[in-house]
Amino acid sequence: MAQLGNGFDCASKSEIDLALATGIDPSRIIYAQPCKTKSYLRYAAQAGVKQMTFDNADELYKIKACFPDAELYLRILTDDSTSLCRLSMKFGASLDVARELLELAAQLELKVVGVSFHVGSGAEDPSAFVKAVQDARMVFDQAVEVGHDLHTLDVGGGFSHDTFEKFAGYLGEALDAYFPPHVRIIAEPGRYYVANAFTLAANVIARRDIPDPTDSTRDAYMVYLNDGVYGNFSNIIFDHQHPIAQILSCANGIDRSAEGIHYSIWGPTCDGIDVITQHIELPGMLDVGDWLFFEEMGAYTKCSATRFNGFSDNHEVIYISSEAGASALLDY
Which of 48, 128, 158, 254 has the greatest count of CB atoms below 10 A from its CB? Predict the structure, then answer.
């Protein structure tokens, strides 16, 4: 990523370490966590990671004590009510207090260089970006009046793979309307970049037959996989996703012309919330040892896997590339 000219948005010391390990210059890292641990702040100072966000007065006093040379971004509150994962309930300064915070930063002789916002992860309303840009423009003007020299706007994340072009269009028009070309624009499109990063394959470890809840004359089946919501399917709980199962291999064969078989799909733990799919119809009789696969399992999956009930969070990764892709990577 560093070679592509990208920067890194980090939320902790460990993420800063991962970014620095790529060889990137610390100036291309932003510590975008408005409420930071003191020891992490001191580490950022030691590592030369100057850019960071804040959204309250207590954070300014902390930064003054631990890293007075930091370059600060005021994170403002947004309307993320239509987003899958709301963040404004936890972070963001309202416009009512923005000027006060800018004045306090000036009094503390801290350097505010930009404004940041985040309309929520998995945003569903593109007008939220437009309103956030308008609010950011207001805060930029207030900062100039207070005496700060702002040069960067961080438009956050919230971009989804299926709506990226539409949302980017709204955002681009708003930026052209409210900000001059010399203002640097940065973003955090992590979800968009990794949405298609991998396809997940999971093994059927158990099966249980039950009456079909939709048709008492038919059988249905509960199948249990070697992965669940405490593993790579954590996106179901944390990211409100609905992964769709497809049959990868089936010893009994797949008859796509026959009537589908009804399944519910479960994870391996003893927890009742460990359910992947309540109801799905698949064109084959699954049994122990068969495999299902789930596409677009890149965002918020492996990163939040745990070891609940003693199951491993270390999953085998198989890299698959097209011939053209392999040629580009291996330079032949």
Answer: 158
pLDDT at residue 108 in the model: 97
Which of 177, 194, 211 lies at the terminal end of a domain, its last residue? 194
* Contact residues for 142 (Cβ-Cβ < 8 A; gap 6+): 98, 99, 102
Tell me the C-alpha to C-alpha distance, in Å, between residue 107 and each of 54, 103, 199.
Answer: 16, 6, 52
- Residue 155: CATH number of its domain: 3.20.20.10
Q: What is the pLDDT of residues 212-222, one digit of tens each?
A: 877 776 789 99
For residue 300, is pLDDT > 90?
no
Q: What is the CA radius of gyration of the chain?
A: 24
Q: Where in 111-245 does DSSP place strands (E)?
A: 111-116, 152-154, 184-186, 200-211, 219-225
Residue 12 has pLDDT above 60, yes or no: yes
Q: Is the pTM of this model over 0.85?
A: no
- Catalytic residue annotation: 270
Asked if the model's pLDDT at residue 302 lies above 90, the reply is no
Q: How many domains does the chain have?
A: 2
Q: Give the model's pLDDT for residue 218.
A: 79
Residue 85's identity, in one-letter code, is: C
Residues 48, 50, 53, 59, CA torsion sign = positive
Neighbours of 162 (CB within 10 A): 9
User: What is the maximum alpha-carbon separation in the chain?
Assistant: 76
